[in-house]
UniProtKB/TrEMBL annotation:
Taxonomic lineage of the native organism: Bacteria, Pseudomonadati, Pseudomonadota, Gammaproteobacteria, Chromatiales
Membrane topology (UniProt): Single-pass membrane protein
Subcellular location: Membrane
Tagged with keyword Coiled coil: no
The organism of origin for this protein: Nitrosococcus watsoni (strain C-113)
Chief location of this protein within or outside the cell: membrane
Full protein name: Sulfotransferase family protein
Alphabetical UniProt keywords: Glycoprotein, Membrane, Transferase, Transmembrane, Transmembrane helix
GO cellular component, one term: membrane
SUPFAM superfamilies: P-loop containing nucleoside triphosphate hydrolases (SSF52540)
One example GO MF annotation: heparan sulfate 6-sulfotransferase activity
Length: 461
Protein backbone atom coordinates (compact mmCIF):
# COMPACT_ATOMS: atom_id res chain seq x y z
CA UNK A 1 0.00 0.00 0.00
CA UNK A 2 1.00 3.67 0.26
CA UNK A 3 4.02 5.03 2.05
CA UNK A 4 3.80 8.18 4.13
CA UNK A 5 6.40 9.78 1.86
CA UNK A 6 4.40 9.22 -1.35
CA UNK A 7 3.40 12.35 -3.23
CA UNK A 8 0.22 12.46 -5.30
CA UNK A 9 -0.67 14.67 -8.23
CA UNK A 10 -4.21 14.80 -9.60
CA UNK A 11 -3.87 16.05 -13.18
CA UNK A 12 -7.05 18.09 -13.35
CA UNK A 13 -8.36 18.41 -16.89
CA UNK A 14 -11.08 21.10 -16.93
CA UNK A 15 -14.73 19.95 -17.05
CA UNK A 16 -13.97 16.33 -16.11
CA UNK A 17 -15.77 16.27 -12.71
CA UNK A 18 -12.72 17.64 -10.91
CA UNK A 19 -14.74 20.02 -8.73
CA UNK A 20 -16.66 17.04 -7.37
CA UNK A 21 -13.61 14.80 -7.09
CA UNK A 22 -11.07 17.15 -5.48
CA UNK A 23 -12.83 17.39 -2.07
CA UNK A 24 -12.95 13.58 -1.96
CA UNK A 25 -9.21 13.41 -2.63
CA UNK A 26 -8.42 16.26 -0.23
CA UNK A 27 -10.13 14.30 2.55
CA UNK A 28 -7.43 11.62 2.42
CA UNK A 29 -4.62 14.05 3.29
CA UNK A 30 -3.76 16.29 6.18
CA UNK A 31 -4.75 19.85 5.29
CA UNK A 32 -1.14 21.02 5.78
CA UNK A 33 0.08 18.45 3.24
CA UNK A 34 -2.07 19.82 0.39
CA UNK A 35 -0.52 22.34 -1.99
CA UNK A 36 -2.89 25.36 -2.04
CA UNK A 37 -2.16 26.29 -5.67
CA UNK A 38 -4.32 24.86 -8.45
CA UNK A 39 -3.38 27.30 -11.24
CA UNK A 40 -0.04 28.48 -12.60
CA UNK A 41 -0.63 32.04 -11.44
CA UNK A 42 -1.11 30.67 -7.89
CA UNK A 43 1.84 28.27 -8.07
CA UNK A 44 4.35 30.95 -9.06
CA UNK A 45 3.57 32.91 -5.88
CA UNK A 46 4.79 30.02 -3.68
CA UNK A 47 8.47 29.67 -2.77
CA UNK A 48 9.81 26.94 -5.06
CA UNK A 49 11.77 25.38 -2.21
CA UNK A 50 8.48 24.87 -0.32
CA UNK A 51 6.85 22.65 -2.97
CA UNK A 52 8.50 19.34 -1.96
CA UNK A 53 6.97 19.65 1.52
CA UNK A 54 3.50 18.94 0.12
CA UNK A 55 2.15 15.41 -0.34
CA UNK A 56 -0.85 16.21 -2.53
CA UNK A 57 -1.04 18.44 -5.59
CA UNK A 58 -4.13 19.02 -7.71
CA UNK A 59 -4.51 21.46 -10.51
CA UNK A 60 -4.23 22.52 -14.14
CA UNK A 61 -0.46 22.13 -14.54
CA UNK A 62 -0.44 19.42 -17.19
CA UNK A 63 1.15 16.02 -16.66
CA UNK A 64 4.75 17.21 -16.61
CA UNK A 65 4.31 20.67 -15.15
CA UNK A 66 5.29 19.87 -11.57
CA UNK A 67 8.12 17.44 -12.18
CA UNK A 68 10.93 20.08 -12.37
CA UNK A 69 10.01 21.28 -8.88
CA UNK A 70 9.90 17.89 -7.10
CA UNK A 71 12.78 15.59 -6.13
CA UNK A 72 11.07 12.53 -7.66
CA UNK A 73 7.96 11.87 -9.76
CA UNK A 74 4.67 11.81 -7.84
CA UNK A 75 1.95 9.20 -8.13
CA UNK A 76 -0.32 10.42 -10.92
CA UNK A 77 -4.11 10.41 -10.93
CA UNK A 78 -6.46 11.74 -13.58
CA UNK A 79 -10.03 11.67 -14.85
CA UNK A 80 -11.02 11.64 -18.53
CA UNK A 81 -14.32 12.38 -20.25
CA UNK A 82 -15.73 11.49 -23.67
CA UNK A 83 -14.73 14.26 -26.10
CA UNK A 84 -18.32 14.86 -27.24
CA UNK A 85 -19.68 15.65 -23.77
CA UNK A 86 -16.45 17.39 -22.72
CA UNK A 87 -16.54 19.76 -25.71
CA UNK A 88 -20.21 20.63 -25.26
CA UNK A 89 -19.75 21.15 -21.51
CA UNK A 90 -16.76 23.44 -22.14
CA UNK A 91 -18.76 25.54 -24.62
CA UNK A 92 -21.60 25.94 -22.11
CA UNK A 93 -19.17 26.83 -19.35
CA UNK A 94 -17.56 29.56 -21.49
CA UNK A 95 -21.00 30.88 -22.43
CA UNK A 96 -22.01 31.00 -18.76
CA UNK A 97 -18.84 32.27 -17.06
CA UNK A 98 -17.80 35.84 -17.82
CA UNK A 99 -14.26 35.27 -16.49
CA UNK A 100 -13.33 32.81 -19.22
CA UNK A 101 -11.05 34.07 -21.99
CA UNK A 102 -13.37 33.98 -24.99
CA UNK A 103 -16.66 34.56 -23.15
CA UNK A 104 -17.19 38.07 -24.51
CA UNK A 105 -16.36 36.97 -28.03
CA UNK A 106 -18.90 34.15 -27.87
CA UNK A 107 -21.56 36.43 -26.38
CA UNK A 108 -20.95 39.33 -28.76
CA UNK A 109 -21.22 37.09 -31.80
CA UNK A 110 -24.09 35.08 -30.28
CA UNK A 111 -22.23 31.92 -31.22
CA UNK A 112 -24.13 28.68 -31.37
CA UNK A 113 -22.22 25.51 -30.52
CA UNK A 114 -21.74 24.90 -34.24
CA UNK A 115 -20.42 28.46 -34.72
CA UNK A 116 -18.07 27.94 -31.78
CA UNK A 117 -16.59 24.88 -33.50
CA UNK A 118 -16.22 26.73 -36.81
CA UNK A 119 -14.31 29.72 -35.46
CA UNK A 120 -10.51 29.24 -35.26
CA UNK A 121 -10.40 31.59 -32.25
CA UNK A 122 -12.71 29.41 -30.18
CA UNK A 123 -12.26 25.94 -31.69
CA UNK A 124 -8.72 25.68 -30.30
CA UNK A 125 -10.18 25.90 -26.78
CA UNK A 126 -11.82 22.49 -27.24
CA UNK A 127 -9.40 20.74 -29.61
CA UNK A 128 -7.72 17.64 -28.13
CA UNK A 129 -7.72 19.17 -24.65
CA UNK A 130 -7.06 15.90 -22.85
CA UNK A 131 -4.08 14.94 -25.00
CA UNK A 132 -2.67 18.43 -24.54
CA UNK A 133 -2.91 18.16 -20.76
CA UNK A 134 -1.52 14.63 -20.47
CA UNK A 135 1.34 15.23 -22.92
CA UNK A 136 2.41 18.58 -21.43
CA UNK A 137 6.06 18.77 -20.40
CA UNK A 138 8.06 21.69 -19.08
CA UNK A 139 11.65 22.80 -19.61
CA UNK A 140 12.76 24.52 -16.45
CA UNK A 141 15.74 24.16 -14.16
CA UNK A 142 14.70 25.20 -10.62
CA UNK A 143 18.35 25.89 -9.81
CA UNK A 144 18.18 28.94 -12.07
CA UNK A 145 16.01 30.64 -9.47
CA UNK A 146 12.31 31.37 -9.02
CA UNK A 147 10.01 31.63 -12.01
CA UNK A 148 8.99 35.16 -11.02
CA UNK A 149 10.25 37.48 -8.35
CA UNK A 150 6.71 38.65 -7.58
CA UNK A 151 3.12 37.85 -8.46
CA UNK A 152 2.52 38.37 -12.14
CA UNK A 153 -0.55 38.87 -14.29
CA UNK A 154 -2.22 35.88 -15.84
CA UNK A 155 -0.94 36.82 -19.28
CA UNK A 156 2.67 37.01 -18.06
CA UNK A 157 2.45 33.60 -16.38
CA UNK A 158 0.82 32.05 -19.43
CA UNK A 159 3.52 33.49 -21.67
CA UNK A 160 6.23 31.95 -19.47
CA UNK A 161 4.50 28.54 -19.56
CA UNK A 162 4.19 28.66 -23.35
CA UNK A 163 7.84 29.62 -23.75
CA UNK A 164 8.98 26.72 -21.57
CA UNK A 165 6.62 24.03 -22.85
CA UNK A 166 8.36 21.18 -24.66
CA UNK A 167 7.37 21.24 -28.34
CA UNK A 168 5.91 17.96 -29.65
CA UNK A 169 4.33 16.79 -32.89
CA UNK A 170 0.74 15.51 -32.86
CA UNK A 171 1.93 11.90 -32.96
CA UNK A 172 4.38 12.51 -30.14
CA UNK A 173 1.68 14.16 -28.08
CA UNK A 174 -0.66 11.21 -28.45
CA UNK A 175 2.03 8.66 -27.60
CA UNK A 176 3.18 10.65 -24.59
CA UNK A 177 -0.42 11.03 -23.37
CA UNK A 178 -1.00 7.29 -23.70
CA UNK A 179 2.18 6.55 -21.75
CA UNK A 180 1.00 8.90 -19.02
CA UNK A 181 -2.35 7.10 -18.87
CA UNK A 182 -0.58 3.82 -18.18
CA UNK A 183 1.70 5.51 -15.66
CA UNK A 184 -1.25 6.83 -13.65
CA UNK A 185 -1.75 4.99 -10.37
CA UNK A 186 -5.46 5.72 -10.78
CA UNK A 187 -7.53 6.57 -13.84
CA UNK A 188 -11.20 7.50 -13.79
CA UNK A 189 -13.86 8.10 -16.42
CA UNK A 190 -16.43 10.81 -15.81
CA UNK A 191 -19.14 8.80 -17.57
CA UNK A 192 -18.54 5.97 -15.09
CA UNK A 193 -18.10 8.12 -12.02
CA UNK A 194 -19.37 5.73 -9.33
CA UNK A 195 -17.32 2.90 -10.78
CA UNK A 196 -14.31 5.22 -10.87
CA UNK A 197 -14.78 6.00 -7.18
CA UNK A 198 -14.86 2.29 -6.41
CA UNK A 199 -11.60 1.84 -8.31
CA UNK A 200 -10.10 4.78 -6.40
CA UNK A 201 -10.98 3.22 -3.04
CA UNK A 202 -9.58 -0.16 -4.04
CA UNK A 203 -6.36 1.25 -5.53
CA UNK A 204 -5.32 3.08 -2.37
CA UNK A 205 -7.11 1.11 0.35
CA UNK A 206 -9.38 4.05 1.18
CA UNK A 207 -12.95 3.76 2.52
CA UNK A 208 -15.74 3.56 -0.07
CA UNK A 209 -16.77 7.01 -1.21
CA UNK A 210 -20.50 6.44 -0.77
CA UNK A 211 -23.12 8.87 -2.04
CA UNK A 212 -21.65 11.79 -4.00
CA UNK A 213 -23.32 15.03 -5.05
CA UNK A 214 -22.13 16.23 -8.45
CA UNK A 215 -21.01 19.85 -8.15
CA UNK A 216 -20.94 22.66 -10.73
CA UNK A 217 -23.16 20.72 -13.12
CA UNK A 218 -24.33 23.01 -15.92
CA UNK A 219 -28.04 23.93 -15.83
CA UNK A 220 -29.92 21.68 -18.20
CA UNK A 221 -26.97 19.26 -18.40
CA UNK A 222 -24.73 18.63 -21.38
CA UNK A 223 -26.46 15.93 -23.37
CA UNK A 224 -24.22 15.23 -26.33
CA UNK A 225 -26.60 12.49 -27.52
CA UNK A 226 -28.97 15.17 -28.81
CA UNK A 227 -26.42 16.86 -31.07
CA UNK A 228 -27.15 16.89 -34.81
CA UNK A 229 -24.92 14.53 -36.75
CA UNK A 230 -23.08 17.32 -38.57
CA UNK A 231 -22.22 18.99 -35.24
CA UNK A 232 -21.03 15.69 -33.79
CA UNK A 233 -18.73 15.32 -36.78
CA UNK A 234 -17.28 18.78 -36.17
CA UNK A 235 -16.50 17.83 -32.57
CA UNK A 236 -14.86 14.57 -33.57
CA UNK A 237 -12.84 16.20 -36.34
CA UNK A 238 -11.14 18.56 -33.90
CA UNK A 239 -10.70 15.81 -31.30
CA UNK A 240 -9.21 12.91 -33.24
CA UNK A 241 -6.31 12.58 -30.83
CA UNK A 242 -8.61 12.81 -27.82
CA UNK A 243 -10.85 10.07 -29.24
CA UNK A 244 -7.88 7.76 -29.67
CA UNK A 245 -6.77 8.57 -26.12
CA UNK A 246 -10.25 8.02 -24.69
CA UNK A 247 -10.55 4.64 -26.38
CA UNK A 248 -7.20 3.65 -24.84
CA UNK A 249 -8.45 4.91 -21.47
CA UNK A 250 -11.62 2.82 -21.74
CA UNK A 251 -9.59 -0.34 -22.35
CA UNK A 252 -7.22 0.41 -19.49
CA UNK A 253 -10.06 1.32 -17.14
CA UNK A 254 -11.92 -1.89 -17.93
CA UNK A 255 -8.81 -3.97 -17.26
CA UNK A 256 -8.30 -2.29 -13.90
CA UNK A 257 -11.93 -2.76 -12.88
CA UNK A 258 -11.63 -6.45 -13.74
CA UNK A 259 -8.51 -6.66 -11.55
CA UNK A 260 -10.42 -4.97 -8.73
CA UNK A 261 -13.40 -7.32 -8.93
CA UNK A 262 -11.09 -10.32 -9.04
CA UNK A 263 -9.19 -9.16 -5.97
CA UNK A 264 -12.38 -8.40 -4.01
CA UNK A 265 -13.45 -12.04 -4.25
CA UNK A 266 -11.24 -12.82 -1.26
CA UNK A 267 -13.44 -10.62 0.92
CA UNK A 268 -16.73 -12.26 -0.14
CA UNK A 269 -18.63 -14.22 2.49
CA UNK A 270 -20.58 -17.46 1.90
CA UNK A 271 -23.53 -16.76 -0.37
CA UNK A 272 -22.09 -13.51 -1.76
CA UNK A 273 -21.38 -13.68 -5.48
CA UNK A 274 -18.98 -11.05 -6.76
CA UNK A 275 -20.49 -9.64 -9.98
CA UNK A 276 -18.68 -9.67 -13.29
CA UNK A 277 -19.28 -5.93 -13.63
CA UNK A 278 -19.66 -3.12 -11.12
CA UNK A 279 -23.08 -2.13 -12.48
CA UNK A 280 -24.61 -5.54 -11.71
CA UNK A 281 -24.30 -5.10 -7.93
CA UNK A 282 -22.67 -1.83 -6.84
CA UNK A 283 -23.94 -2.24 -3.26
CA UNK A 284 -22.09 -5.54 -2.82
CA UNK A 285 -18.95 -4.15 -4.43
CA UNK A 286 -18.96 -1.27 -1.94
CA UNK A 287 -19.39 -3.71 0.96
CA UNK A 288 -16.38 -5.66 -0.28
CA UNK A 289 -14.42 -2.42 -0.67
CA UNK A 290 -15.22 -1.57 2.94
CA UNK A 291 -13.80 -4.93 4.08
CA UNK A 292 -10.75 -4.35 1.87
CA UNK A 293 -10.23 -0.92 3.49
CA UNK A 294 -10.62 -2.32 7.02
CA UNK A 295 -8.19 -5.13 6.26
CA UNK A 296 -5.50 -2.65 5.26
CA UNK A 297 -6.12 -0.56 8.38
CA UNK A 298 -5.51 -3.44 10.78
CA UNK A 299 -1.79 -2.67 10.89
CA UNK A 300 -2.47 1.00 11.74
CA UNK A 301 -1.26 2.12 15.21
CA UNK A 302 -4.13 2.39 17.72
CA UNK A 303 -4.69 5.27 20.11
CA UNK A 304 -3.90 3.96 23.59
CA UNK A 305 -5.19 6.75 25.83
CA UNK A 306 -6.82 9.51 23.78
CA UNK A 307 -7.61 10.63 20.25
CA UNK A 308 -8.44 14.11 19.02
CA UNK A 309 -9.69 14.92 15.52
CA UNK A 310 -9.58 18.58 14.52
CA UNK A 311 -10.72 17.55 10.99
CA UNK A 312 -7.42 18.81 9.64
CA UNK A 313 -6.26 15.18 9.58
CA UNK A 314 -6.89 12.62 6.81
CA UNK A 315 -10.48 11.46 7.16
CA UNK A 316 -11.15 7.82 7.92
CA UNK A 317 -14.75 7.93 6.81
CA UNK A 318 -17.23 8.98 4.16
CA UNK A 319 -20.30 11.12 3.75
CA UNK A 320 -18.68 14.46 4.57
CA UNK A 321 -18.18 17.58 2.48
CA UNK A 322 -14.94 19.54 2.12
CA UNK A 323 -13.12 21.22 4.99
CA UNK A 324 -14.26 24.75 5.82
CA UNK A 325 -13.26 27.42 8.32
CA UNK A 326 -15.57 28.64 11.09
CA UNK A 327 -15.69 32.48 10.98
CA UNK A 328 -15.82 32.77 14.79
CA UNK A 329 -12.49 31.10 15.59
CA UNK A 330 -11.02 29.95 12.25
CA UNK A 331 -11.32 26.32 13.34
CA UNK A 332 -12.07 23.58 10.81
CA UNK A 333 -15.46 21.96 10.30
CA UNK A 334 -17.12 19.63 7.82
CA UNK A 335 -20.75 19.43 6.80
CA UNK A 336 -22.26 15.98 6.71
CA UNK A 337 -23.94 15.05 3.42
CA UNK A 338 -25.13 14.77 0.77
CA UNK A 339 -26.93 11.75 2.29
CA UNK A 340 -28.42 11.46 5.75
CA UNK A 341 -25.73 9.07 7.05
CA UNK A 342 -22.02 9.82 7.47
CA UNK A 343 -19.36 7.83 9.26
CA UNK A 344 -15.97 8.21 10.91
CA UNK A 345 -13.74 5.31 11.93
CA UNK A 346 -11.76 5.70 15.16
CA UNK A 347 -8.56 3.63 15.52
CA UNK A 348 -8.69 3.12 19.29
CA UNK A 349 -7.46 0.38 21.62
CA UNK A 350 -10.07 -1.98 23.07
CA UNK A 351 -10.26 -3.47 26.55
CA UNK A 352 -11.78 -0.50 28.37
CA UNK A 353 -14.54 2.05 28.05
CA UNK A 354 -13.95 5.30 26.21
CA UNK A 355 -15.71 8.62 26.55
CA UNK A 356 -16.60 10.33 23.29
CA UNK A 357 -17.15 14.07 22.90
CA UNK A 358 -17.84 16.12 19.78
CA UNK A 359 -18.98 19.61 18.81
CA UNK A 360 -21.53 20.70 16.21
CA UNK A 361 -21.27 24.32 15.06
CA UNK A 362 -24.25 24.58 12.72
CA UNK A 363 -27.31 23.01 11.16
CA UNK A 364 -29.62 24.66 8.65
CA UNK A 365 -32.71 23.68 10.67
CA UNK A 366 -33.27 22.77 14.31
CA UNK A 367 -35.14 19.59 13.44
CA UNK A 368 -32.08 18.28 11.60
CA UNK A 369 -29.84 18.65 14.64
CA UNK A 370 -32.64 17.46 16.91
CA UNK A 371 -32.88 14.23 14.91
CA UNK A 372 -29.16 13.42 15.29
CA UNK A 373 -28.44 9.81 16.21
CA UNK A 374 -24.95 8.35 16.65
CA UNK A 375 -24.24 4.64 16.62
CA UNK A 376 -21.07 2.62 17.20
CA UNK A 377 -21.10 -0.60 15.14
CA UNK A 378 -24.87 -0.19 14.88
CA UNK A 379 -25.41 0.21 18.65
CA UNK A 380 -27.17 3.53 19.53
CA UNK A 381 -25.20 5.79 21.86
CA UNK A 382 -26.88 7.89 24.53
CA UNK A 383 -26.01 11.51 23.76
CA UNK A 384 -25.80 14.17 26.45
CA UNK A 385 -25.71 17.88 25.55
CA UNK A 386 -22.93 19.61 27.52
CA UNK A 387 -22.88 22.94 25.64
CA UNK A 388 -25.83 24.73 24.10
CA UNK A 389 -29.48 23.70 24.32
CA UNK A 390 -32.08 21.99 22.16
CA UNK A 391 -32.96 25.45 20.84
CA UNK A 392 -29.46 26.25 19.53
CA UNK A 393 -27.47 24.91 16.59
CA UNK A 394 -24.12 25.08 18.38
CA UNK A 395 -23.87 22.11 20.72
CA UNK A 396 -21.32 19.91 22.39
CA UNK A 397 -22.24 16.28 22.99
CA UNK A 398 -20.69 13.46 24.95
CA UNK A 399 -21.47 9.80 25.34
CA UNK A 400 -19.97 6.55 26.55
CA UNK A 401 -18.46 3.93 24.24
CA UNK A 402 -19.13 0.68 26.16
CA UNK A 403 -16.25 -1.74 26.48
CA UNK A 404 -18.20 -4.61 24.90
CA UNK A 405 -18.64 -2.69 21.64
CA UNK A 406 -14.93 -2.00 21.31
CA UNK A 407 -13.75 -5.39 22.52
CA UNK A 408 -16.23 -7.57 20.64
CA UNK A 409 -16.73 -5.82 17.34
CA UNK A 410 -14.08 -3.23 16.57
CA UNK A 411 -10.88 -5.18 15.81
CA UNK A 412 -9.19 -1.88 16.58
CA UNK A 413 -11.58 0.26 14.51
CA UNK A 414 -14.77 1.77 15.94
CA UNK A 415 -17.22 2.98 13.29
CA UNK A 416 -19.31 5.95 14.35
CA UNK A 417 -22.33 6.64 12.16
CA UNK A 418 -23.96 10.08 12.36
CA UNK A 419 -27.57 10.01 11.11
CA UNK A 420 -30.02 12.87 10.60
CA UNK A 421 -33.57 12.99 9.29
CA UNK A 422 -32.83 15.07 6.18
CA UNK A 423 -30.35 17.33 4.42
CA UNK A 424 -30.86 20.80 2.96
CA UNK A 425 -28.97 23.06 0.58
CA UNK A 426 -28.16 26.66 1.61
CA UNK A 427 -29.55 27.71 -1.76
CA UNK A 428 -32.95 26.20 -0.92
CA UNK A 429 -33.19 28.66 1.99
CA UNK A 430 -31.68 31.62 0.13
CA UNK A 431 -31.91 31.59 -3.71
CA UNK A 432 -29.05 34.13 -3.85
CA UNK A 433 -26.69 31.65 -2.18
CA UNK A 434 -24.78 29.69 -4.85
CA UNK A 435 -24.14 26.73 -2.50
CA UNK A 436 -26.19 23.82 -3.82
CA UNK A 437 -24.67 21.17 -1.54
CA UNK A 438 -27.04 19.01 0.48
CA UNK A 439 -25.84 19.33 4.08
CA UNK A 440 -26.88 18.04 7.49
CA UNK A 441 -24.75 18.94 10.51
CA UNK A 442 -21.44 20.82 10.72
CA UNK A 443 -18.95 18.78 12.77
CA UNK A 444 -16.19 20.91 14.35
CA UNK A 445 -14.06 18.38 16.27
CA UNK A 446 -14.22 15.01 17.95
CA UNK A 447 -12.37 13.65 20.98
CA UNK A 448 -12.20 10.16 22.47
CA UNK A 449 -10.56 9.50 25.84
CA UNK A 450 -9.98 6.18 27.51
CA UNK A 451 -11.63 6.00 30.92
CA UNK A 452 -9.47 4.97 33.85
CA UNK A 453 -10.58 3.99 37.32
CA UNK A 454 -14.30 4.26 37.99
CA UNK A 455 -16.31 2.58 35.24
CA UNK A 456 -18.76 4.95 33.58
CA UNK A 457 -16.98 8.14 34.61
CA UNK A 458 -18.30 11.03 32.49
CA UNK A 459 -15.87 13.80 33.41
CA UNK A 460 -15.31 16.20 30.51
CA UNK A 461 -11.66 16.13 29.34
Amino acid sequence: MLNFSDRFYFIHIPKTAGTTLIPLLDARFDANDICPAQLWRELVTLPQESLPQYRFFRGHFGAGGLQPFLPEPPLYLTMLRHPLSLTLSTYRFILRESGTRVHHLVKERAMSFSDFLDSPETRKKVSDMQVRHLSFDLRHDPDTGPIFLSAESRSAVDKWVLEHEVSLSAEQRLERAKRMLHACAWLGLAERFDESMALLSWTFGWPPVGQVQKLRVAPGGSNSDDLPEEVREKVLNCNKLDMALYQEAERLFQDRVADMLGDLMRYARPGEVVPGTFAKNPALVNQLLDRHYRHHLEARPLAQESLYLSLQEPLLGSGWHRRERAPADNSTFRWSGPGTESFIDLPIQGGQEWMLEFRIVHALALDILGSLQVTAHGVPLELEITEGTRETTVRRYRCLLPVNIIADKSRGLVRLVFKVNRTLSPQSLDPANPDERQVGIALNWLRAERLEGIQGCMTTP
